[in-house]
Amino acid sequence: MDNKFRNVLALAYVGDSVYEIYVRQFLFAQGIEKVKELQKEATKYVSAKGQASYLNAMMEKNILTEEEVEIVYRARNHKSHASPKNTDIVTYKQATGLEALIGYLYLEGRNNRVEELMNFILK
Fold first, then answer.
1. What is the pTM of this model?
2. CATH 1.10.1520.10: does it fit domain 3-122?
3. How far apart are CA 109 and CA 80, in angstroms?
4. pLDDT (0 to 100) of residue 51
5. pLDDT of res. 83
6. pLDDT (tens digit, 9 = 90+) per residue, 49-103?
7. CA distances from 26 to 47, 77, 122 (A)
8. Cα dihedral across residues 95, 101, 104, 108: positive or negative
9. One of 11, 15, 16, 72 is an active-site residue; which one?
10. Which residue in 42, 63, 65, 98 is deepest, having the highest Cβ count within 10 Å?
11. Is 88 designated active site?
């Protein structure tokens, strides 16, 4: 099955893991080695609010392809029965869109593109 048409929440599930590994590697490379401090810094990147802001910045700068925007919109507009714990539904859905995009690109083997987007986020 073409990954583009897979369940967007499953793509987001994979994307969440990939995203978090990039963030943790980045923070560790910054010389942060105390777990409590790593966790505190990681929250800035992995929170729904943080992810939504990075997605919005990418959209404003038009760095996503049409195909990538389509994945984001599919995930963002997917009807979900989950209710976010620490944020509003719009922010949660935007974060899900970013995670789905990362998951999609990763599963497609487009690691260079994942790297580009993560570099934009972590710059």
1. 0.90
2. yes
3. 27
4. 96
5. 63
6. 999 999 999 999 999 999 999 999 999 888 766 666 778 888 999 999 999 999 9
7. 16, 30, 8
8. negative
9. 16
10. 98
11. no
